[in-house]
């Protein structure tokens, strides 16, 4: 019986369940490590994102015989130049539009309530139950819109704290660029040749997965944001820069992001001129078609190879568990886990074939 596959699977399941239970019971032991990991998580992730963005530039400079330290300094200068351009030319316009949008939220809330009230008073065929439900939705929406300025202020306050955490990112980025390629050789020196070879293949696969996702998503987001900005300016949509920047941020979230991005633009368009909401929808469809048929296939290719239904499921689960951060990091975390499992599975197949 000990050699039966079903019995081995049963014992493995019991041992895994027991391990999970024990880890849950002694989770207090891991709290200091989790606190430390949480403290460095943001600068580490931020540094890693900038690392994948700037590494091609550093390698390009090294190709022309520029020393690595000097290449890193040039990369930092390019980031500073980009930041100066954003602060000098983009941020003032976006801030002005954002302030006007926040100031208009109460008026927009009142207009929604008045429109629905007028519509209810001039119809006789809708059941009372539907009217009650509609009134409840209107009240909830109005309360949410009225509370929006306070929520936005809280978000801005959190953003200020977030900015302070940015100070550590340049330090992480510098050492990642300088010594990033030394990590794998350092770790493999403690492994035998077979394990070291497998570990190198795994890290190469993980590097390719993360690079494809980060560069791909940023390229897609910038492309969609620029297309939307041009489209919004052509139709004369109010707060066009702010709405395009919001869309650029939302498009970082795979699959769900584009749908979230268009909601505030359509709401603004409805208040400005109802027909303009149709124009906004058309612009979004055109941008998504261009992105889906031209940008994503050429930038990301099939590196992640994740089915859309899997993406939706993972995003919904991560969003309910971890909120916005879950939406943001769900797919790259899933892609990393999938890469590791796929690597281990192929290693097991090779080992099994060799043993036979």
Describe the fold and architecture.
The protein has 356 residues and is mainly α. It has two domains: 39-118 and 128-141 and 155-189, no CATH class; 191-356. The chain has eleven helices and no strands. The chain has helices at residues 5-25, 27-63, 68-121, 128-165, 169-179, 183-188, 193-235, 240-250, 257-272, 274-299, 308-355. Helix 3 (68-121) crosses helix 8 (240-250) and helix 9 packs antiparallel against helix 10. The relative contact order is 0.07. The model has no long low-confidence stretch (mean pLDDT 78).
Brief digest:
The protein has 356 residues and is mainly alpha-helical. The chain is built from eleven helices and no strands.
């Amino acid at each position: 019986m000990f050699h039966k596959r079903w019995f081995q699977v049963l014992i493995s399941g019991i041992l895994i369940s027991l391990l999970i239970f024990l880890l849950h019971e002694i989770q207090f032991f891991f709290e200091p490590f989790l606190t430390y990991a949480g403290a460095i998580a943001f600068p580490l992730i931020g540094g890693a994102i900038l690392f994948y963005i700037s590494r091609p530039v550093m390698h390009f400079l090294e190709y022309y015989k520029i020393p690595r330290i000097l290449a890193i300094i040039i990369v930092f200068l390019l980031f500073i130049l980009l930041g100066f351009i954003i602060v000098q030319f983009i941020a003032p316009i976006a801030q002005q539009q954002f302030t006007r949008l926040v100031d208009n939220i109460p008026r927009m809330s009142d207009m929604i309530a008045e429109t629905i009230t007028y519509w209810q008073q001039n119809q006789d065929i809708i059941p009372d139950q539907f009217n009650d439900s509609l009134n409840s939705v209107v009240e909830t929406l109005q309360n949410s819109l009225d509370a929006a300025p306070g929520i936005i202020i809280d978000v801005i306050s959190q953003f200020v704290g977030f900015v302070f955490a940015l100070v550590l990112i340049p330090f992480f980025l510098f050492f990642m660029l300088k010594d990033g390629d030394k990590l794998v050789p350092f770790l493999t020196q403690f492994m035998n040749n077979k394990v070291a070879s497998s570990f190198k293949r795994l890290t190469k696969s993980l590097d390719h997965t993360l690079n494809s996702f980060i560069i791909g998503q940023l390229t897609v987001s910038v492309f969609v944001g620029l297309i939307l900005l041009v489209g919004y300016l052509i139709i004369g949509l109010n707060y066009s820069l702010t709405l395009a920047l919001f869309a650029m941020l939302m498009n970082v979230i795979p699959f769900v992001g584009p749908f979230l991005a268009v909601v505030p633009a359509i709401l603004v368009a409805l208040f400005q001129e109802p027909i303009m909401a149709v124009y906004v929808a058309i612009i979004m469809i055109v941008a998504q078609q261009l992105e889906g048929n031209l940008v994503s296939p050429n930038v990301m290719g099939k590196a992640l190879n994740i089915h859309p239904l899997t993406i939706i499921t993972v995003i919904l689960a991560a969003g309910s568990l971890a909120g916005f951060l879950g939406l943001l990091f769900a797919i790259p975390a899933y892609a990393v886990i999938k890469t590791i499992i796929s690597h281990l599975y192929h290693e097991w197949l090779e080992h099994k074939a060799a043993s036979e």
